[in-house]
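Entry 12.
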Amino acid sequence: MSFEDEFVAKAKEYLKEDIDANIMNEVNWEIAKYFNNLNKEIGEVKNDSFSSYGSKHRSYMTIDNREVLFETVTDDGNYHIQVTQSTDDTTNELDVIYVQEGKMYSQQEEKEFNMDIVRNHLKNTFGDILGL
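Predicted 3D structure (tokens):
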């Protein structure tokens, strides 16, 4: 075992690693990477209604007056990702992705989280205007 491996292991033990937060952060980074890859593939566009960004705590995409947002929420040590869809005048909760027994779950889909859940939320938000 290298010094770094031992150091990390001992630090996690001493500092009381927050396993649920780490599980959620892994999923957050996966979602952020996905949004950033989509943004890169879309590239520069003339329609200035488009905006997209992915980060550890907040990933979103906006086209015209619609937005889908994946945002980290912490309530009394409970972690979840709230998924909302917004238009000019309304905001609707689409899903809550939460940690349970060491895994992330989608409340809406009632199953373990995977990237198809993100794809479904994008399709449900933008599918009709993009012809998907």
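Annotation: The chain has one domain: 19-130. The first strand starts at residue 51 and ends at 54.
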